[in-house]
Specification:
Largest sheet: 5 strands, parallel
Number of strands: 9
Number of domains: 2
Number of helices: 10
Oligomer: single chain
Structural class: alpha/beta
Distance between the termini: 72 Å
Helix content: 40-55%
CATH superfamily of the largest domain: Rhodanese-like domain
Order of helices and strands: HEHEHEHEHEHHEHEHEEH
Length: 241
Amino acid sequence: MKIIKNIFTSLLIALSLFGCTKKEGLQNLAATEFQTELKSAEPGQILDVRTIDEYAKGHIEGAILADITSDAFQNAVANLDKTKTVYVYCLSGGRSGSAASQLQEMGFKSIVNLTGGMLAWQSANLPVTTQEGSAQPSEGMTLADFDNQIKGKKLVIVDYNATWCGPCKQLSPVLEAWVKEQKGTVELIKIDVDENQELAKAKQIESIPYLEFYKDGKLADKQIGMGEAKAMTDKWKQILL
């Protein structure tokens, strides 16, 4: 009985310790949850790991620029308090996931990552701000503009991408080659989500690469992410041809 009692006591202590440290480590939160957590954020502990151009187009209030593709990330991290929670985000979640991993390796104990990045944030109609004195950027194509572009076309693939997106770059040659093989029967439209944020928000795009397939102006199917080339092209054929 004494052994059982000791085991039970040890379990209670372990559970108690777990309960006290449940916020440590890495948390991946959806946009609305991320916003709620930001209410307790310390000044200077919110990182926008996108490029300076992306940051200037609109960012979360209180975020500092920490472009993970440049020295800005290391410079920003050097000024952070490792004992306090760090909040990190990018456009769709890929770069911030990498940043979060690096922060863990550097010894940060509590990191909160925005799942889906600014695409998810804007899809949830959450507020953004721009740098003081920066010009208000063009929101690009509207949903009405897009509908007009698709109208009257028989077979179309729309490729939503961004210049920094690695999987987008891997998908592009496969997609372009397949469309070329169709000898003009399928049209490919490429849309940069950074340059067309209003459209991305209207379509609630939270991850790229993202493909849409249209037949006679109507959405027939969609694809999120990058897959094995043969499987993808077989699927495209099934959808459109």
